[in-house]
Design a protein that fits this description.
The chain is an all-alpha fold. It is built from five helices and no strands. The longest helix has 11 residues.
Amino acid sequence: MKDLSTFVKERRKAIGLTQEEFANRAGVALTVIRKIEQGKTNLSLDKVNIVLAMFGQILAPISVRELEKIDNENS
C-alpha cells in the first residue's frame, strides 16, 4: 500500500502538473500540496480530501479493529 505522499506525487506527475498547477486546479494552497508530498503529519483531513478528490479518492477514519480485519483478510 502506498503512503499518501507517494500516491499524490505519482498521480500528480502522471497527469503532468507541477505542484503549483495542481494546487490551483484542486483549489488549495501550494503549501498544502507541498506538505502532503513531503509526508507532513499536521494536515487537515478536509484539505487532504480536496486533493484526493482530484483522483476520485477519499481518506476516512477507520478503527484499529477494522484495519486489523482487513489486514487479516489480505494475508
